[in-house]
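Q: I have 548 residues here and want to know how they pack in 3D. Can you give me a structure?
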Amino acid sequence: MREKSINVHYSFIFTIILVLVTTLQTVYADNPYRYYTWKITYGDIYPLGVKQQGILINGQFPGPQIDCVTNDNLIISVYNYLSEPFLISWNGIQQRRNSWQDGVYGSTCPILPGKNFTYTLQAKDQIGSYFYFPSLAMHKAAGGYGAIRVYSRPRIPVPFAPPAHDFTVLAGDLYKRSHRQLKYILDSGHDLPLPDGLIINGRGWNGYTFTVDQGKTYRFRISNVGIATSINFRIQGHTMKLVEVEGSHTLQTTYTSLDIHLGQSYSVLVTANQPPKDYYVVVSSRFTTRVLTTTAVLHYSNSWTKVSGPPPGGPTTQINWSLYQARSIRWNLTASGPRPNPQGSYHYGLIKPSRTIMLANSAPYINGKQRYAVNSVSYTDPDTPLKLADHFNIGGVFNLGSISDQPYNGNAYIGTPVMAANFRSYVEIIFQNWENTVQSWHIDGYSFFVVGMDGGQWTPSSRAHYNLRDTIARCTIQVYPKSWTAIYMALDNVGMWNIRSENWSRRYLGQQFYLRVYSPANSWRDELPIPKNAILCGKARGHRTRPL
């Protein structure tokens, strides 16, 4: 009798294991796998004319480009040869049901020196232009970033003819100081000075060339990978037709230059329809006391004339110019491809939000040091990633509701703010900026609808001016000085998600928090299980992940 009981027990266990294995195999089934091995090292770089220590991936700065197709699985083994912990995050990749792989400290333990970790990602129901970057400390100031392109599936029509070539433009600011020196300045209670310069694809002035054939059309995917400044992008003598913003096909409006704020990505089509010679590709800073400028070269293959003279100027501190341009970017409603589908309806403007959250940034001094805060709470990392503490029910790491839905008028303080939210709810978020600087906000795990932006204080009457028909969905949005920006977002992705400033000194000094989107079902349908290879640190040491 006892032997029969044991056999039944083992049969039950075997059945459970079989179900688990089958479920895990079907999670990513029928979609291609792409494998990458990355070695993270220090190396010398010279983009601003002086030797600097950069963070390289496989000896490259910027790092290797990821090219994939909607729903592809990406298996990325990262080996850390630095002398300090390291993490990579994936700006714009939504990590559907899988915040475990998000690569920020709130969800993932760092990869220690001499160790490795394998990320398992999926570009689930996405297309578009994105990038990856190092998320710890001030590593992003030293490189370690690269482009991500997610192409549509072959049978899905794209609303423009295939370009002759697809160029990546990773542009942004750079400091001559090392990332450790920048961290020291911030830890000492001071803000960073203006960056020393701008770079394009890891190169300084005229250091990079895009070669084109006369009469052909090319796609340029432009990302602002800097840490401090908005930029303006333009090509001398050429116009740009906007076709995609962070996964949204847009109405194909033509621009002579584009403002691209921290963390944002745009795709444009450029036709080489000018007399054959070389032209400046210009990136300049926006809203800075001193305008920083750098250039690359658009080289016609039949040109014998080099660029000469000053590059064409662009907008500098004009706020209204940038605001009007941002409002002109609309969704192409007739284009095919993945798109956010709130509550089973593509009509985002017909759904009434169940909750309004207002987030106000501020720049308080706390204990005599410069900090930054959201709703008066300045974030500091705990000793254990929030996601692991939540999963293992570890107390003393964070408290739900430790940040208010509305701005708090009391004195700012340091904490570990986590906001609670319910799976499948539909929320309105107002980013209210009372400071004199442009803010850039990013939300991990999501794409949201930018329904409005304007100057002054947001009030309920501001909703009368929302775009409820054809605004774009994106993952990073700007808020102009003394202004507000409103978004609608369907909370359809369970997990622990970072909401942060893309200005890296502000993020490092506290302008971030986490949104815990919770489903009581505790089902793999809603959220994938903890990875078997998850690194356990802090109070999570000694716990187990899972057997399969």
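Q: Anything worth noting?
A: The two ends are 31 Å apart (CA to CA). The longest helix spans residues 2-27.
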